[in-house]
Amino acid sequence: MSIFFELGQRPDEPGPPISGPTSYPEDVTARLSADAEKIIARYPQPRSALLPLLHLVQSEDGCLTNAGIAFCANQLGLTSAEVTAVATFYTMYRRTPTGDYLVGVCTNTLCAIMGGDAILDSLQDHLGISTGDTTDDGRVTLEHIECNAACDYAPVVMVNWEFFDNQTPATARDLVDGLRVGNPPEPTRGAPLCTFRETARTLAGLPDPRSGGDRVGDATLVGLRVARERGMSAPDPDAAAGSDDGAPDDQTVATEATKDASAPGPSATVPPEPNTAETNPDATDSHI
């Protein structure tokens, strides 16, 4: 009597199973192998390269496929079951075909109460799809996402992990309309948009051809400006290690004097108006 065990995603694993062809054509395998060799060389243990290799094969197919799983396993000397166990744990690895633009609406606490749920509902109606689905033209895949550490710009929509801040249902509809007609708008911060597959190559650790990713939002810099106004800075680790006289240094005195003070309320100068020297972090804050 023989027993057949199918290795891979557990039957009770949430989400659709990984599917698709089981192997790549020879030319695709050769091309991906050249990229994989560069990635694996960065790690003392080859299996440590699994996460970037999963991004690499996702850049080929727009999602994970059986062929991609098998490729990663062969490159790293792992079983397909071991690769699948990792691949199904992380939400950034897609199991179904993804459009050119993965549009994620944050519905975590702050974004939700600032209108994130309304934005998601509006986009589902406008695009005629549910979360996790892709438009018929293959341009936009819609999903709800958890917090992406941009609460000071809530509600936030992300497109291929680039930020579009302070959104409304109307601006979000304009955003996806631009994506669908081939006129992607500039993100609020960070680098210009590229396609989902190009993003996956960058996440794999391969060179990013884009430039202009140094834009920082004003709200991000408020804490830095307040610290400057109060004469606060990070302590010098070398000085702290070499001081043993027990006397408080200037930084300790400044910290003790301000630690219980209330944070300043919104004003016309915090943050300052755009186009001033203070709003250009490259001028004085390139080390931050």
From TrEMBL:
It comes from the Bacteria. Residues 276-288 have a biased composition (Polar residues). Residues 232-288 are annotated as: Disordered. Keywords: 2Fe-2S, Iron, Iron-sulfur, Metal-binding, NAD, Quinone, Translocase. It catalyses: a quinone + NADH + 5 H(+)(in) = a quinol + NAD(+) + 4 H(+)(out). Residues 233-245 have a biased composition (Low complexity). Its cofactor is [2Fe-2S] cluster. Signal peptide: none annotated. One of its GO terms (molecular function) is metal ion binding. NDH-1 shuttles electrons from NADH, via FMN and iron-sulfur (Fe-S) centers, to quinones in the respiratory chain. The immediate electron acceptor for the enzyme in this species is believed to be menaquinone. Couples the redox reaction to proton translocation (for every two electrons transferred, four hydrogen ions are translocated across the cytoplasmic membrane), and thus conserves the redox energy in a proton gradient. Belongs to the complex I 24 kDa subunit family. This is NADH-quinone oxidoreductase subunit E.
